[in-house]
Amino acid sequence: MSDSDGATYSSAAHDSTIGIQAETVHNSSVYFVHPDASPQEKYRVGVRLLEDGVPSRAREMITDAIAHGYRNAEVRFHWVLAMFSTRTHHDLSAEEVQQLHRASGLIRSYPEGEWKEALRVVFDLLTALGSASGTTGPVLKQLQDLPSRQHDAILRHLDLMLTGGLKDDLWAETLEKADAERWGNHRAKRVWAYFEPSPIGARAAPPRLDTAAAAAAQAALPPRVVLFVVSSVTLGALAWIAHPALAVIESLVALGAGRAAARCGIQWWGRQPRPDRTAGSDAPQPHSPAPPEGGFTNSVRNRFEHYFTVRTPHGFTPDAWLAHTAEVRSDLAAEIADLYRENRIGVDRVNWLIRYLAEEARTRHNNGTLFDRHPQDRTPTRTKVLTVAALAVCGAAVLAGLGTAVRGAVQPRPVWALLAFLALAWSGHAAAQLWLKVRRERHRLAMEVREYQEELAARQKAHQRWKAYLDETRPSEVEMETWLACDKTSFVDEALRHHRLTWRDLITHTILVTPARPYKRARIQGGPWRYSHYVIRLFLFTRDGIREVSSELEFSDSTRRNEQRSNYRFDALSSVQVTENADAGYDLELVLTNGPARKIRVKDADAHQLAPDESAREISEISLSTTGFTHTFRLLEGIAADGKGWLERHNPDNLTPFQIAD
Where does the sequence pass through the membrane (predicted)? Predict the structure, then answer.
């Protein structure tokens, strides 16, 4: 996988599964057709499917559009291409041949234009099959004169139809175009984005609601406040009886000082203290105990370790940075694992957030705030001094009031004054503690709500940036199909040159493109699976037998390795079998008379990756068709059944030219 800064890594050491590493289905409606859609809309989707390499579904859509009255030269041109794409004459049913014959007779009814001319060239090419090389010059000239859109589409979709000398005449042009497009549109820098899973939405740890403690404090506060008010009034009344003027002054001083102490005390004691992550130390912390192997939490921890390793601040080695941030990473990993611990959510969908948090940790380190994720509001010294002074003045005023109340009084007034003072002191202290506790909890909750909102907003912005980058970078279906087609063309050319064959030497050929493990795979809804790692298997059918060439393809950079070649006679292929398993996929088994059976995994199971509105059978047929399985199986099955008899029926020299209707 690659991320936005170009870093690459393999997760095989930590949490990969041997074989399938990632599966992604991208949300898309490009292939969705409403049941009440117009014929024009069905045709548009059909053309899109044809361009994206899904001719079987394209035939259905375009045929439906024609059946509902949408008929012109352009529609018929794409219908003919869909009929022949990834097929040969022998793959067509008798009914399809009749349909094509009738379609050729409709050409003259269309108005002149580029689409009518392109349609005429298609049928002229079909009638030229099996002709001598020198007689194909006029139709090739017509093909060259077509606009590039129609010209390129004909060469691509009639690839299996065009054989012999006609294919030889076109091969140099086909190869040149494939070489030009093989690495086009920044392929090596963009393919990874196709297999990148859609990032899951941003989340943050919500505020802690400690309602029980706050409710208990709030419930205990009113009785103490009532006792404080009653005892204050009692002491004030006794002082006023003894000396009214002095009592008024003492009461006013006590009220003013108490009010000042309350206002300043809230700023000092009314806020919830939060210990730093390192308990006041900036020293590196020891590693946390390793979690059990496997599981989502372990995967999250491994990804944190990876991204912290590749995002190391200046002055740190990766190992030193990992040791320095052990506790920070542990806390973050625990938070992410708790937030996203859901069924069927892979860690790959959370990579963007882990990467963002690693970058944020590096930024906080550079700013000197790495170990203080919750910065405290420092209480100014002036506020502390005012609070202490106000409390001292308030206490002095209350003591003075007590002295005024008992001075010169007769029994039992001094006893009541002393009791009122003691009740005032106790209830005031208790009420202040409870009040500050309620205020601290409210302040804590407000701070955490604010931090939660800020953290969530920052993560949402990071999510939007990453999603926008993926959408901008991710290749389209047309690009993915074009690159794969170019890879196959290059592979066929190398095989022909290695065996010193020309297209005149071939009866036919077929290419089977299957997944190679380990791989990542992805598709859009309604589309075929595409893989990061393929096995391309080419079968060249000559008069002497079958030449088979296979090679592994790394799709991101079009590199091939582990090439293998084998040759065998037609009668050496004794049987061809297909095994279908809903939980495993499709296997093609070739049994040779002079060797062990060879099993080829054509497609892995995909039922658990279907969207609610997708058909398992339909997606399976689409994926099998795009691998080349349908055509390959029909050829190999025919050879296994007929041996050399198959050669007589498929020899290009015996091919009956396509007849255009009068």
Answer: 385-403, 415-436
